Amino acid sequence: MIKNYFKIAWRNLLKNKTFSLINITGLASGLACFILIALYVADELSYDKFNEKAERIYRVNSDIVFGGNNLHLAVTADPMGTALKKDCPEVEEYVRFYTSSGSKLVKKGSSFINEDNVAHADSTLFDVFTLPAIAGDTKTALNEPNTVVITESTAKKYFGTTDAVGKTIETNDNTSTVYKITAVIKDIPHNSHFNFDFIFSMDNADYSWGQFTSHNFFTYLLLKKGTTQQAFEKKLDLYLAKYVLPSLQQNNADIKSVEDIKKSGNTLQYSLMPMTDIHLHSDRFPEMAVNGNIQYVYIFSAVALFVLLLACVNFMNLSTARSANRAKEVGIRKVLGTEKRSLIGQFLTESTLMAFISLFFAVLIVWLSISYFNDLSGKELSINSLFKPTYLFVLLLLPVAVGLLAGSYPAFFLSSFKPITVLKGKINAGFKRSILRNVLVVFQFATSIILIIGTIVVYRQLNFIQTTKLGFKKDQVLVVNNTYALGNNATAFKNEIAKLAGVSSATFAGFLPVSNSSRSDYTYSKEAVMNTKNLLSSQTWGIDYDYINTLGMEIIKGRNFSKEFGSDSTAIIINETAGKVLGYDDPIGKKLYSTYDGDATPGASVSFNIIGVVKNFHFESLRQPVAPLMFKLGDRTGATAFKVNTSDIKNLVSKVESKWKTMASGLPFSYQFLDDSFDNMYRVEQRTGKLGLTFAIIAILIACLGLFGLATYMAEQRIKEIGVRKVLGATVSDITAMLSKDFVKLVLVAAVFAFPLAWWAMNKWLQDFAFRINIGWWVFVIAGVTALLIALLTVSSQAIKAALSNPVKSLRTE
Q1: Residue 12: which H helix or E strand, with range?
Q2: Which of the listed ranges 98-102, 254-258, 570-574, 663-667 does the model predict with the highest average pLDDT?
């Protein structure tokens, strides 16, 4: 019987070629979208799960609200891991990463290569994380200073082989350091929230150790089996009271207990985050890589489901609409004794066969488009993943589920026809109107309208980010990286480039107004004796005399730093937010006190004289409000920025590179433009916008495909009516309007349901931004009109064709 089902199903597919083509195209497109998004979502959810002890690894986070500054950090103090392991038997092991040193220049042959994926780590790294070794002993690999572990691809890059244990590499970090390679590990999987090529011994980290109030280390804890996150987090309060509180009391005499911190309106709190949650649930400063966002996983999962449902809806719509063509078949088969369950089996077999054929074309579409999808999403997905046992099982189950879902209603609907009614020809009237079919069309266009609105809002927010006044000028700013490697020649290089035609100013730019630029937080007070009522916590940037002018910032009170004032070595410039937190109407001439003197170690209190107020500018993402910020004189030479005023950028960059090679023989020339660095802060949103637009277009095309087939069939069903109307004088426009008006009503109903859902979803997404657009009413009008025009164009093409047909031929055919 099953064989007979398939034979009849295949004959029906070939007999109704147009119907079959529309359905297979729609289902294949829907399945392809579903598969691509499923691969994307599966990859996002897989992060860090390759670690054998993943369920017991936690990162310690810090939340600090102190002196007007609100910090949500992914880093802690350097002694924290040691203290917790000593005091808490629940801690099996800990490991720290230190990445604040940034990139390193690694020597290969006679020249250096700039390596960004570097970190210092404790020797316990391999006791916590699963990073298999190819060569060397990871248990002792980082026990000693001047040792380094490298990845497989890095070993091949520098030595042409993975047999690199015992060999050495040289780095240039102001001074030359030679490291011995003690182990080579497999490349860290792409689905890891950190991905380092070089892991150096923690003993070589350039850091002032033992500061319980300085937060610069990523600290991970491996908890013993049976220890819960909630239970252990209570121990973090004990750590705060035992170690951090005494450090705070040295400079804040009024802090007697942790409760005093809370009473003053401040917060200092530590918490655990499961390692497997970091990629999708963490948006702290700093992160070791660009993280994903669980919201986007939910959004794209919903899009995948809706696109697949749209394709299933098309099938149900067309199957029920063309049921009149098969009504007599059902009637005759029932008269001949065919049972209802056999008819249901026949129709479900047809839909499942169509789903399997669609799956074949869907996989073909995925194979052809996966490179484009990877470019859009920033992923490294492979179609080979589909043929892993788990994925293959789901893949083969998918057309069965789709076939049963899409074919269930048509199967039960068609098999329920009464043979006498059908054979008397009384069934046709019921086909012209169907409540379920109308509901399904409404669903299709409601989904399309939501996707259109979502795409418009995302692109408007991205455009707002690009065009909003930032308080500094990001355009035409060339940033040359790693100028610290020039040592004493850094100033000479800056001055030489400043003399080039097309360069208007130059400044050292160790700090830049983009995410993950250098950060340095100090605590100040308005009085010589610091307490919780007079303090201010603020980022403090060391800049030179030309920084503010080069980046186009505006001094609104007081003055800029000047070489004419020798006292500016203890001067400070604040932003507007800092002035408001301090409570000063006119801060010029006021003093601030700090126990930090520049980059020196904490110690005696130093006073700074406020000489200027800079207009607020966005030095972090627009997701955050503008926080307090201080400028003081300094010479952070990590990078150098040049304001350029020439259209011949290529020629200018060439001249800068030539000067670099003259003064920095063997060192790599690395540069970027500030506006590119700014754009990188919103890379996830940009990719989301492009993916959203792509899937919105596909969803609309699938909806149109179903609407096209439905309109074609409805026009065929009413061909006699059209012929009579034309004979009685109806015009082409009259007939087109008659056939289109029902669909127009359905689109309008879809808009009524779609608008509030779209507003809720996009308003929730915009809450992530401290600075955001308002969703204007016109966005909904554009989305509704667009959907209406798409429906009209789709339906009217068939309506006009029917209206132009010869009425005599139509009536004769009937």
Answers
A1: helix 2-15
A2: 570-574
Residues 6+ positions from 500 with CB-CB distance below 8 Å: 652, 655, 656, 659
Residue 428 structure tokens: 């046709």
Among 212, 183, 220, smallest CA distance to 97 is for 220
Q: What residues pair up with 59 in beta bridges, in sequence order?
A: 220, 273
For residues 413-425, one letter each, b for 16 or more C-beta atoms within 10 angstroms of the residue's C-beta and e for the rest, the string is bbbebebeebbee
H, E, C per residue of 336-404: CCCCHHHHHHHHHHHHHHHHHHHHHHHHHHHHHHHHHHHHHHCCCCCHHHHHCHHHHHHHHHHHHHHHH
Least-confidence region, from 171-185, 263-277, 677-691: 677-691
CA 364 to chain centre: 27
For residue 707, which amino acid is it? L
Q: Give the residue-averaged pLDDT of 55-63.
A: 95
User: What does the pLDDT look like over 68-85, one tens digit per residue?
Assistant: 667 888 999 999 999 999
> pTM of this prediction?
0.81
- Alpha-carbon distance of 206 to 231, in angstroms, equals 35
Helix (H, G, I), strand (E, B) or coil at 206: coil
User: 535-543 and 629-633: which strand pairing?
Assistant: parallel
Amino acid at 20: S
CA atoms within 13 A of residue 1's CA, in its CB half-sphere: 8
105, HSE (Cβ side, Cα atoms, 13 Å): 24
DSSP states along 174-226: SEEEEEEEEEEEPPPPSSSS---SEEEEGGG-------TT---BEEEEEEPTT
User: How many Cβ atoms are within 10 Å of 431's Cβ, its own excluded?
Assistant: 18
